[in-house]
Structures are given as structure tokens and as C-alpha cells.
Amino acid sequence: MARVRYLTAETAPPAVASTVGKMPPLHVFQMLAHAETAYRPWLRYGGAILSDLALDPLLRELVILQVGRLAARYEWEQHVPIAKAAGATDEQLAALDRGELDPFDAAQRATLVFTRAFVRDGEVTDEEYAALSAELSEREIVEIALTAGHYLGLARVMTALRIDPDPAVGPEGLPAARL
Q: Residue 167's Cα: distance from chain center in Å?
């Protein structure tokens, strides 16, 4: 059971009520609306992560799934349909859920290894970084780190506040998820 109430357009503070009403009815959006002054900027930043990066949408989704697998199952459940729409296969998703890297190409493997280190303790070895930088540009690497950081921070909030699960809405329910 969640530690804070989920807000709706009717129960949210006036400063964010209309925004809450426009969002998909997911607990994450309803929970974070308590942070009135940060809510809209957080939504804009999250929207930029989902739609404005140069990073390939499939790599972005693999980063989010890796964070979700390691830190908050809520993120995993919400992003599996988005990852599928971005090109992830059932074989890849099953392997990633087991922590295996076999069905991924070199760039995907390097991204998943980097993200795993980022989530666990933030220490990315020189070898892990070299593998990533051999496959991706500096811009893409920074965008991977920003994506992992955003979703890791969100995972910690959701875990500490004990968010309840929601059915996955997929890319149709999160239009900012550029594919």
C-alpha cells in the first residue's frame, strides 16, 4: 500500500490539478503531483527523456528496463510494451529479465552493462566504459547516463513511497515515448 495518497484532478492542489487531469491515470503521476512546484518541470524532463534524445528508442528502453529490473519492477512492467514497440524481441526481454546478454548486439550489451554498473553503485569500470564508447557517441553515452539517472531516481522514490502497481499503458498511453 502506498505511503502517500494518489491525487486526481479533483484532489490535487490547484497549481497542478489540470495537469494531473491530462496525464494517464497512473499512480506514478498521481503520487508525484504532491510535489507541486517540481511536478511540471519533472514531467517536461521525463518527456524530453522519452521523446527528444538522439539516443535510439530501443536503447533508451533497454536502459529503462535494466533500471526497472534492478531497482523498481513498476518501471519494468510499464516499459515492456514500449520496448516491444521500439523493436525489442520476446527473446531479448526474457534474457534481460534473467540478467543475460546473449541476444543483444554489441551496442546493446555495452549499454546494458554500463547501466547495470550505474544502478548498482555508479562505478563504471574503464573496460565497461571503453566497450560503450567503442559503440556510441559521447552524446549518446551522456543520454544513456541521464536516462538511467532519471529512472533510478524515480525508482527510489517509488520504492520508498511504496507505489502500487498499475496495468501497463504502453506507448499509446504514454505519447511522449517516441518510437
A: 16
Alpha-carbon distance of 165 to 163, in angstroms, equals 7
Whether 132 contacts 112, CB under 8 Å: no
Longest CA pairwise span in the chain (Å): 52
DSSP 163: P
Query: What letter does residue 5 receive in the DSSP assignment?
Result: P
Closest CA to 49 of 75, 74, 73: 75
How far apart (Å, rounded) are the C-alpha atoms in residues 41 and 115? 24
For residue range 27-40, what is the model confidence (pLDDT) as tens digits? 999 999 999 999 99
Q: Which residue has the cell 550489451?
A: 109
* pLDDT tens profile 70-103: 999 999 999 999 999 999 999 999 999 999 999 9
CA angle 112, 118, 124 (to 5 degrees): 90
Distance CA 10, CA 54 (A): 37
Q: pTM here? A: 0.96
CATH architecture of 57-161: Up-down Bundle (1.20)
How many Å apart are CA 85 and CA 169, to the nearest integer?
A: 12
